[in-house]
Amino acid sequence: MANWVKCTHKGDEQPVYVNVDAAMSMRWIESDNATIIVYAGGEIDVVRVCFESNRYAGRMSAAVQSNIARLVRRYFDSGTKRLDVTWYGGEPLLAFSVVERLSKRFLSLCEEFGREYSAEIVTNGTLMSHEKAQQLASWKVKRAQITLDGVPELHDARRVPKNRKPTFCTILDGIDAAAAHMHVSVRINACRKVAARLEELLQILAARGLNRVVNVYVAPLQKVQDRKRLSPHESQALPSSVAPQPGGEQLDALDSREAADLELRFVDLLWKYGFAVSNRLPEPRSTTCMADKEHSWLIEANGDVQKCYWTAGLRAEAAGRLTEDGIVPRDPYRKWQDWTAFRNAGCLQCIMLPICLGRCPLKHLNHKSDPCPPFKHNWVRVLARAAGVPDGQLVPVQLPLAGEKVREPPRCRLEL
Questions:
Q1: Rounded to 5 degrees, what are φ and ψ at 84?
Q2: Fewest C-beta atoms under 10 Å: which of 137, 289, 341, 396?
Q3: CA distances, 349 to each of 39, 234, 287, 306 (Å)
Q4: How many DSSP H helices and E strands does the chain contain?
Q5: CA-to-CA distance for 280 and 283, rounded, in angstroms?
Q6: Rg, C-alpha atoms of the chain
Q7: pLDDT at position 236, please?
Q8: Against a cut of 0.90, is the pTM above it?
């Protein structure tokens, strides 16, 4: 028995039938790649910062490290051709010895089995130095992501270390050091206050010559559903970067249309100040993120295994537990395995589905509002720019993004 859904769009002569079960299973087909995000530990030495702050204190034990190495060996024994690793969590540079030991084990295993290896690091940048960056590069860490929270006064008010000293300039020094040895992406967390001063921030970065050596992108902080409408368990899983902050600060978050407008305006600013700009357009995809990839795991310092960055440190959300014999699934794993945008009526009506695949599984699972990508709201202008057509020459037209209402999925028997 196959589960089919009829999808029709205005102007189409023939309806399109989507096999939901087949579409869902495509993302769980055995892959040649394994992706491991290592939450190395090292408690973030801050009062306020990002969502995983202080959820798990301590470095990864030798036992957990050995179990990760066993897991990688098991993958290679089964035919996996490539290992991708992201160093993450707390602040990985506080657990630099863990990064060193595991990196050497990964490289040794890849050499033994003749496998490909790639690594990157997500760091706040305050502990990055030329020496550390050079060592990381020697362990094939090729990319780093470092975050800023706006111009100095806004950033330093939100990223407050326990010693209360400003961090903005220290992070810029870290970006400089990392960029000399690897590719660096600077992420700018943007609420309305930050968005209003993005040009000033880019001027500061360009004045230091960073426009020639790093990529910069903006990550709009968006509104989430009211916590009062969520269960305590769901409320706990919400990222604090889009929720009321400690100390009473309420972030002035962007809605999805504001985020779409900001995305285009930011590209103009990148051009203006000589930063690299990607002209790549969204493409159809088979998975949306690590959450719906079978062989992608976030392994925490205590051995808990997650399927999403946002749930790191929440034991109740752990999808499994890493043991000597591999990953033992827990109840939350089922929701990630079962979820698919192809069973969401709203997604099935939207012509953006092949591009976003529902975008964020966690937002759907926690019933958050508007999980749609900015491209849904600015696609006409994005395509026009790619074709060299200025906004002033665009003619407003009405093009439906959704087709007819999706009906109840009929049950069909396939005769082979």
A1: -115, 125
A2: 396
A3: 38, 27, 19, 31
A4: 15, 15
A5: 9
A6: 22
A7: 46
A8: no
Lookup: tokens for 265:
């305006």
305 neighbors 276 (Cβ within 8 angstroms): no
d(CA 196, CA 156): 17
The answer to whether 3 and 409 are in contact (CB under 8 A) is yes
Which pair of tokens denotes residue 198?
A: 């993005």
Rounded to the nearest 5 degrees, what angle is found at the Cα of 239, between the Cα atoms of 281 and 263? 25
Contact 297, 307 (CB under 8 A): yes
Phi-psi map region of 113: left, alpha, beta (phi>0 left; psi -120 to 50 alpha): alpha
Tokens of 100: 């060193």
Question: Nearest Cα to 117, choosing from 96, 93, 98, 138?
Answer: 138
Q: How far apart are CA 89 and CA 121, in angstroms?
A: 10
DSSP character at residue 23:
H
Place of tokens 């036992």: 63
Rounded to the nearest 10 degrees, the angle between the axes of helix 198-207 and helix 256-272 is 30
Contacts of 239 (CB under 8 A, 6+ apart): 51, 224, 310
Cα separation, 189 vs 47, whole angstroms: 18
Distance of CA 40 to the CA centre of its chain: 18
Q: CA-CA distance, 93 to 42, in Å (whole number)?
A: 8
What burial class does residue 332 get, using C-beta atoms within 10 Å of its C-beta: 0-12 exposed, 13-18 middle, 19+ buried?
Answer: buried
134: region left, alpha or beta (phi > 0 left; psi from -120 to 50 alpha): alpha
Percent of all residues in the chain with a pLDDT value above 90, rounded to a whole number: 48
Chain segment 242-284, per-residue pLDDT in tens: 444 444 455 688 888 899 999 999 999 999 999 999 877 888 8
Q: What is the pLDDT of residues 165-194, one digit of tens each?
A: 999 999 999 999 999 999 999 999 999 999
pLDDT for residue 300 is more than 70: yes
Q: Are 288 and 357 in contact (CB under 8 A)?
A: yes
